[in-house]
Amino acid sequence: MKLIKLLCGFAFLVVLASNIWTISRWSESRGVYDDICYLRQAHLFKLFGLDGLNTDIKREDDQYLASKLKAIGYPEWNVATRAPCHVWMEKTKKTVIQYPPGTGFALALFPEGFQVIPLYVLASIVVTGFALLALSCASTWYSLALAAVFGDVAIYLMINPTKASYSIAPTMMVCALAGWLTAKLLKDGSRHRLVLLALVGLLIGLSVNLRLPNLFLSAGYCLYLAGAFLLARNRETFLQGAAFGAALLIGMAPTLVANAINAGSPFTTTYGGQDVTPPELDASVLWQYFRDVQFTLLAIAAVWTAWLWRYNQGGARQAAILLAVNLVVNAIFFMTHPIFTPYYIMPIDMLTLWTLLFATLNLRGEAAAEPGFPQLEKALKRHRRSMVRPDSAGPR
């Protein structure tokens, strides 16, 4: 099995190398409005540090946004109030970027003009690392095959559809780490449950800074923890919910501060237009999801979650409940949203699938270990008894 693991790991690295080669030829000037606005947020952080949270268009002294829009042929590039993905906030009298600050901050970590490529390369490397971790945890041929296929697909997805939005690359890293931690905390007998819940809450909170709809990734956790408290009504379940909730808010703090600066209140969104319309079912939007790869991943996640429910060990049923609730809430939100994109449900897909992968590997590892150990213990006891005379303390 070690040799097969090495070969599978080598295959992961080949896919990663292919990713890096493809990413290295990408351009930061794709003519996509979202890209320009994320890059403008990064530019503000470069210029002003943390004060870059203030995205008022009046700070456009160096014409960074105007030059980007002019380069792609935007007809009103010189009309600041008509800039794409910017929204007028009546309360603060500002025209501001509608997106939360996390993606811009992530891009600002790299040199201006060379920000997108290193961000995607880093994200691909991190996802490959978790794929290798899953491969190392495989203890049966079945789990090895599962980890190998999953890893290859997960690494490939860092190219398509992740390239569709700069916000998805860092989100995919968060989903992989949060999925691994979720599987650990739901495992029976987890001794660090409070710490793990706080870490997962913090990660999901941080992901909200990348994409505001990532807030819905917390829905399953919140409802699961609330249900556990209502059923048990004890100090332990209260502390678990409090730890997750407090960490979630701490992780979201940059977005809440940015909202206060730009919109006048931490809980007032900077989004506008179709993004804030009431939910409604649209047949055309549903059809686009049904024929897209993200829906295929969602269907796989749903079937896999149902399969996990069959096992009453290793926290499998608790994981299945949490994941099922999360899937349902996120599916309802995005299926009733008036806009379709090829990446909207990728975060819930990947958070669920990473959790299922590590939860399944935990189950398979226990199944592989349990049958042999009891028999081995009994055999050793019998052997020790046979080596001792009934009337003597010494060996035969």
Summarize the structure.
It is built from 15 helices and two strands.
Into which percentage range does the β-strand content fall?
under 5%
Describe the largest sheet. Answer: 2 strands, antiparallel
- C-alpha Rg, in Å? 25 Å
Distance between the termini: 41 Å
Give me the side-by-side strand order of the main sheet.
1-2
Mean pLDDT: 90
Please tell me what the overall shape is: globular
The H-and-E topology, N to C, reads as HHHEEHHHHHHHHHHHH
The helix tally amounts to 15
Structural class by SSE content: mainly alpha
Which parts are unreliable, with pLDDT below 50 for 5 consecutive residues or more? Answer: 370-380, 387-396
Helix content: 55-70%
Question: What is the tally of beta strands?
Answer: 2
Walk me through this protein's architecture.
The protein is mainly α. 64% of the residues lie in helices and 2% in strands. It is built from 15 helices and 2 strands. The chain has helices at 2-23, 33-48, 64-71, 102-108, 116-137, 141-156, 168-185, 193-208, 219-232, 235-263, 283-290, 293-309, 316-335, 346-369, 372-386; strands at 86-89, 94-97. The chain has a two-stranded antiparallel ribbon with strand order 1-2. Strand 1 and strand 2 (94-97) form a beta hairpin. It is globular, with a radius of gyration of 25 Å. Residues 370-380 and 387-396 have low confidence and may be disordered.
